[in-house]
Structures are given as C-alpha cells and as structure tokens.
Amino acid sequence: MAEKRTDISELGEFGLIDHITQNFKLEQPSSVLGVGDDAALIDDTGRQTVITSDMLLEGIHFDLSYMPLKHLGFKAVAVNISDLAAMNAFPGQILVNVGLSNRFSVEAVDELYKGIETACQAYKVDLIGGDTTASASGLVISITAIGHVMPDQAVRRSGAKPNDILCVTGDLGAAYMGLQVLEREKQVYLTNPDMQPQLEEFQYIVQRQLRPEARMDIIHELRDKELVPTSMIDISDGLVSEIFHLGKQSGTGFRIYEDKIPLDKETYDTAYQFKLDPTTCALNGGEDYELLFTISQDDYEKVKDHPDIHFIGQATENKDLFDMVTKGENVVPLEAQGWNHLRA
Amino acid sequence: MAEKRTDISELGEFGLIDHITQNFKLEQPSSVLGVGDDAALIDDTGRQTVITSDMLLEGIHFDLSYMPLKHLGFKAVAVNISDLAAMNAFPGQILVNVGLSNRFSVEAVDELYKGIETACQAYKVDLIGGDTTASASGLVISITAIGHVMPDQAVRRSGAKPNDILCVTGDLGAAYMGLQVLEREKQVYLTNPDMQPQLEEFQYIVQRQLRPEARMDIIHELRDKELVPTSMIDISDGLVSEIFHLGKQSGTGFRIYEDKIPLDKETYDTAYQFKLDPTTCALNGGEDYELLFTISQDDYEKVKDHPDIHFIGQATENKDLFDMVTKGENVVPLEAQGWNHLRA
User: Fold this and answer.
1) How far is B6 from chain A (nearest CA, A)?
2) A141 Cβ contact partners less than 8 Å away, ≥ 6 residues apart
3) What is the pLDDT of residue B198?
4) What's residue A137's pLDDT?
C-alpha cells in the first residue's frame, strides 16, 4: 500500500500551522495564551521563569537515514527539558521553530509533531508558539523551553563546595555506543542495500541514542526529599566535559573513582565488540542526558539508597585538579577528550 | 589591505561563545541569570511573561549578496521585538540560536553579533542565552524574545469591537519597494560585475528593507497616554493579511479608506518607476513592521494629533465583510494577494 503524500503547499503556511497545532491543548495553569497571536503569555507570579533554547540541524545533529522523525521530535523537546531539569526547574511551555525543505510532506511533518506531542504529554508541557517556514536545504528545528522554579530552589553550575559529593543518575556511554551501532549498520546498508539492520541485541543503547529521556523523575524525587543540589548540569557533551564545567564555575576541583561510574551491561559488551574502552566511552561519550550534580555531605542520607543515583566522587579544594582513581588504584588526570579520541 | 579571516575552529565552540558574549551585559532588573548555565533565569513577580520566536534561513528570508550581516543581526532581533510590541509588552531578554557553515569566519560572526548588540542597546534587551552550532549549509538564525506586561495591559488580536477605529503607524510599502530595488541591482550586478549598485535615490526604502525598526516608541507613547488598544498586530506579511487576522480573531469585519493609507513619497515614486500601483504595494507588501491596532472611539482624542498614527478605517459588524473605499469612491473587497500578484 502506497503511503499518502500531501505537499505542504496544499495547506499553505497558516493551514499547516492549524493542522499542526490542533492536537495541542493548554494544560499548564501558567499558560495564559498560546499559539495564534503575536506572542504567547505566561503568568508566573511569585516564581522565576527558566528559559533555554537549542537548535538541531540536519546533517550536523541528526541523520534521517536512521533517525525516525517521530523520535527526532521527541528528542528535540527532551534535550531542552533536560536543560530545565539541570536548573532544578519544572517545565511549563515550549516554542517550536521548524524549517522544512520541499522534500518533506505533510505526513512527514505529522510524524515529527507526533514525537513533539508525545514529549509534551510525557513532560506535561504546553506548546505555546513558534514559527514554521520553508528551508532551502534540509530540516532545521529550534526549540525554546520555559520552566518555573521558586527563587530559592534554582540550582546553578556554580554552587559546588569542597567535599560535596558528586552524583550521577542512570548509566553513561550508552547513547554514544548506540550511535556507533547505528553508524555501522548505515555503512553496511550503503554497501549492500539488501542487508537488514541488525539491531535486536542493541535495543537499549540504540534507544538511548534515538529517544533519550530528560530526568524529570529525579527532579520530582529530589523535591519530595527536600534535597536541593549545590550544583547541577545535564550530560550532553560527556561526563568529563561536564565535570570541568561544574568545577570551573564553582571554583573547585573534582576527584572521581572509575569503579563507581555506572555502565549498563549492553554498553560494556558493545564497547568490547567495537574494541573501545568502556570507561572511556562513559567518560567522553555524549548525549546521555543524565543529571550530574553535587550534594552537601549532610544530604547523603536522603539519597544513599536510591537505586538510580550513583556517588562517583567529590569536589576538592584545588580548583586546578581534576583526576580519577582507576580500578588499578592509579590516579590519572581527567581530560576532556571530545569525540575523536575514543579508540582504546 | 586584506581583511583578517579567523576560522571559527581556531576558537572552538566554548571559545566562540565567550568571544560573542563578552560585550553583552545584563541590564534588565528581571534578568537574574544570563548566558553560561543550562538555562537562563527571569524574575517576573506580578507581571506576565510574553514570549515569541522566529527563524530566519539563508536563501529564504535573506540574501547575503545585498544584506550586510550587521543589518541582518539587527533585523533578526527587531522583528521579534516587533511581535512583543504588538502585544503591548516591553522587551526584556533575547535568546539567539545561530547555525554557521564553515564559509563564515569569526569576523563575519562578529559583524552579525554587532548588529544583535546594536539592537539589544536600541531596545534595552539582555542577551541571556542561545546556542551556537555548525550548519551543513548556510546561515540559520532563530531568536526567542521575552517581554513583560501587566496582566490588564496585554493586547491580543481578538479584542476589536465594531466601530473601533483602525490605526496604523508610520508608512507602508517601503520595505517591499526597497526589496524590488535591491533585487534589480543584484541582477544588474550579476550581468555586469563592474557595475556599482545605484542606491542613492532609494536610501529610505532600502533602509526600511534592510534595517526595520520595531515601533517600541509608539508602545511607550500609548502607555504615557494611558491608551490600551483593543486589538493589535504588527505588519510582517502585509496590511490586508494583518487586517484579516484582526477581523477573524475578533469576529468583526473592517472597512478601510484608500486615501488614508500612509505612503512615503520615495515609495510612491519608486512604485511608478517599477510600473507598480503604490496602493497595492502598501496593501500587500510585507516587512514594514509597523503596528496595526484598533482603539475605542472614546480614546480618539488622546492620539488624534499624533503625527505618526494614521486612522485608516474602522471595525464593522459583519464579520465576513472586508472592504476598501477607493480614491474614486468605489467600494472594493479586500483580498490578501500575497507576493505574486503585485504587478499593476
């Protein structure tokens, strides 16, 4: 059965906006006015507004040959919500700007917005505005996310103190290994288009790459436990890079312990299959969107038994010293290696 | 003297962000936290937050062969501020997302941000965040602007009542005629690269196209006069298109008078030179970024002598009737013609 393909020009710009937004309802009490006017209105009495914005460009941030549009829509929202989580804020609203070249049909746009809608429901955010426009080349997505926080609850990158405990949620390196698998299968497919991608044994890591979650669950739990981290960031570029951000902005160093770094078994096994060092993948692989934060020693009791919060090190006095105690009990300096130095 | 060209890769992503943001200081009392964390913080106690977002793509919204990067930076901010003005709000902050292909040098990025900085100063807005990323093709700019308004002062598109007076600021059609001149000079240049562009006699209309202003001056004056329009929109697509927006969202019709439509002499003369009907250019040419608003008859006295506010018609009972009384006293229906039907 041939899939239906409707040209965007059949709807026109305003028709497309109506078509896209018809499923989006305002649910947040703070959303006073949404799509359809010159701007949106938010009422924020007594709270602070938290705002973040990210742009995703085809060919740079995503590859549509293995990234389904629905997942892309979800991920574009989730990575912005993750930035709000990293401020200890609760998401409220998003604005979505999309640039579409004429190779995209209305059905393709619908898939993208289905993912955006799923994310809106998952994180309880209202779509309140944005811009839909033609693009000369490829797909462009720019999202602004707005959240809310009580003034004394906002957590910056700059608040870590020496002896604070460094915590990380979930596990690390999986999104990076998922990307390696997807890139390999793409190369196999390009060489022999009859080959079907072999992804069954890599379900978890592929999911982590294609459809990451913002850890709002952790933010809710921390609030329930009345725990405000001293500093926080989300892991988009890689653990080491984010540790440097916390340290530089807080004026502290950090020591971490290799044996405390959380790794999923699938990440571990796949790294070996690819002849990569699993620890290096966890230290420098990006896009996990887990939360990295510091807590005061006094707060340790509140989370010490949490199954998904891992205590990987501590902040130190010397602001120029960032190191790791290896499994072999050597102390090695941490280096933000970026994406080119991952070969074991 | 050869101009200096510095590759963006020499600075790196974080170096580029530091380089760009070093001149931007926070001036707004509501800007609690700006660039450099996961998100920005705004404190808005007692007021509503107004948010709008727009995306500009190379090859669709601008042509760098005649658009200087500095003007583009200014315009990208101004068009978003214009949306805040159209809500009767005062601008506070912006976030700027930029995608850059490798044909852009650090010096080119500096020009773009010089324009953004000039706009920040002109409209007293703080740059509080954004994203700078590589682009596979061309320049992408996505801006989010945040403003503030007291809850009873926000003006929507939907508040016009029958017999309200329809007002427009400034003059119309100039930005469209400026574009015609720039396109003609570009064609001349492409045919004969030794020809210099002839723009002296078109200074005003070219300026209107390249560097439009948001009419915040009018918003301040309306506040001083304690006049809250009943509905408002800014003119980005063209007068007729915006009149339809006000009418459809307010449930009213509109009648306008051709002889009341404000035209600058340069627009008028250039239209004749191009064999275009000046009224048609004013009705359907876009990008003037003037304000179109309705006021109650009771408020007419407050602005009747204002030199830059023109009373071009009124809202009517019949929500399906949009017409114009011509200079020859005929009544003709208004039609949103878009950009393809402007030939006289």
Assistant:
1) 22
2) A55, A56, A57, A72, A73, A76, A96, A97, A98, A99, A112
3) 78
4) 81
Domain ranges, residue B190: 165-340
In a mutational test of the B interface, the residue from A13, A35, A49 whose CB has the highest number of chain B CBs within 10 Å is A49
| Boundary of a domain, candidates A96, A120, A149 | A149
Check whether A336 has a pLDDT greater than 90.
Answer: no
B48-57 sheet: strands from edge to edge: A31-33, A40-43, B48-57, B140-149, B90-100, B126-134
Tell me the sheet residues that pair with A293: A167, A232
Per-residue pLDDT of B214-241, as tens digits, reads 999 999 999 999 999 999 999 999 999 9
Residue B107 vs residues A165, B14, B70, B74, B76: alpha-carbon distances, Å: 43, 17, 11, 16, 19
DSSP annotation of B329 reads S
- B173 and B309, same domain (yes or no): yes
Average pLDDT over residues A42-54: 90
Interchain CB contact of A84 with B (< 8 Å) = yes
The fraction of chain A above a pLDDT of 70, given in percent, is 97
Q: Is A60 on the interface with B (CB under 8 A)?
A: yes
Q: Does residue B21 register a pLDDT over 90?
A: no
Answer whether B95 touches A (CB < 8 Å): yes
What is the mean pLDDT of the segment spanning B49-74?
A: 95
- Residues of chain A positioned with their CB less than 8 A from the CB of B61: 133
Residue A52 lies in a domain: yes
Specify whether B179 is located in the same domain as B117. Answer: no
For the purposes of burial, counting CB atoms within 10 Å of the CB of B224, is it exposed (0-12), middle (13-18) or buried (19 or more)? exposed
pLDDT of A341 reads: 39
Look at residue A4 and tell me whether its pLDDT is greater than 90.
Answer: no
Q: Which of A32, A97, A136 sits opposite B60 (nearest CB)?
A: A136
DSSP tag of B105: -
* Nearest CA distance, B94 vs chain A (angstrom): 10
Closest CB to B144: pick one of A46, A53, A151.
A53
pLDDT of residue B17: 80
- Identify whether A3 is part of a domain: no
Do the interacting molecules here have an ipTM over 0.85?
A: yes
Q: Is B13 on the interface with A (CB under 8 A)?
A: no
Q: Does A263 share its domain with A320?
A: yes
